[in-house]
């Protein structure tokens, strides 16, 4: 409940650990308080020791078939929350990508995570393609432990 | 209303025995929704939940702290175990659907569902969370009392008669409350923003490319239609949260809700979301009405079958 009342807050604090443990918590804030006002997608760039550049796109739903986008929709959710959530998650994602491109002769050296964003502007010409602007939100070196 | 009358109403609402047919039908729909969710994720089980998944268990525990009921905590960190876990999960979801070992299957499905969602909370949507919470209450419901293999077995062994035994519907009521609460909470959250009240919210929703599904007709995308649609969504969510409890409004609201979710299923690519929610609509149907529909269908079936036999 989106009520910032002290009594509600106290009750929430009291029951929260039990609700969290048992899985009885639930939020219902889809498109709320306001729907997102940007279109976005995330792209990863993996740079190897020999300075080769490999690009991995998180699946973009609009580029998939109807069946594929139904199956892969979790990637949409993941790519959407990733830049917004805690930074602590990003090294894990980078390590996963590093393992994906881990070649014996040319191991990954650095991973970049880039979000491309385009504002949705009511009243603008909808026939023109949206202009996506890059936002580098993570840049990190691959540690030897990441590849295990 | 006096306290005594209130207590009686409470007792009647939660504990007066009623037909378990609605909860049994819900069990079937629920089992199908859970099975479909697991099957849809099949190609990515290990990507999301494996030993080397996108997010490690330790990182998930860091960003979502606190003890959690999850089987991943006791499972060996081995992808073969994790894949086996999903097959077992799917097996129990199918058993729950057909109503075999219903109580045990419902416990297993809840545990598995809670486990995968707690393991990666970043990829769950509201429909998943609803399945999880509804699954908790389903464990306590007489979900196998009708339309189940368990019941067939009991009848065959002469442990049960042909009439379905009524039972206390408190667990069903809790799932109904959960659904109504979802709509009402959603309504309240939307009031906190400005686009829903302003009527521009649906403009943004239909222009989010990543969740678009099938193409929308031109006329629906007109600003005035989207404005009316935004306000209608607010009104409907409030009504499904509050007015649904008043009998005269119930069926019209369920019909509107059904049309609303089907239109969202067409327009938005949110796998299983609408079906997860719609499955619980059956809990709001009066068992007597369900019996009437069933007898009409049976009569149709007999008439049709009789006609076929006559023709033969």
Descriptive overview:
The complex is a heterodimer of chains A (148) and B (312). The longest helix of chain A is centred in the N-terminal third of the chain and has 17 residues, at 6-22. Chain A starts with 5 loop residues before the first helix and ends in a 7-residue tail after the last strand. In chain A, a hairpin with a 4-residue loop joins β1 and β2 (53-57). The model of chain A has no long low-confidence stretch (mean pLDDT 89). Chain A contains 4 helices and 4 strands; from the N terminus they run αββαααββ. Helices cover 29% and strands 25% of the residues of chain A. Chain A has one domain (30-147). With 148 residues, chain A is of the alpha+beta class. Chain A has a 4-stranded antiparallel beta sheet with strand order 2-1-3-4, covered by helices on one side. Chain B is an all-alpha fold. Helices cover 67% and strands 0% of the residues of chain B. Chain B has helices spanning 3-15, 21-40, 45-49, 57-63, 79-98, 102-119, 126-138, 149-156, 170-192, 195-198, 201-206, 223-241, 247-267, 273-278, 287-311. Chain B folds into 2 domains: 17-168, no CATH class; 172-285, no CATH class. The mean pLDDT of chain B is 94. Classes of the chains: A alpha+beta (148), B mainly alpha (312). At the A-B interface, α1, β1, α2, α3 and α4 of A face α4, α6, α7, α9 and α11 of B.
What is the fold's blueprint, element by element?
The complex is a heterodimer of chains A (148) and B (312).
Chain A: H1 6-22, E1 38-48, E2 53-57, H2 66-71, H3 73-81, H4 90-100, E3 108-119, E4 133-141
Antiparallel strand pairs in A: 1-2, 1-3, 3-4
Chain B: H1 3-15, H2 21-40, H3 45-49, H4 57-63, H5 79-98, H6 102-119, H7 126-138, H8 149-156, H9 170-192, H10 195-198, H11 201-206, H12 223-241, H13 247-267, H14 273-278, H15 287-311
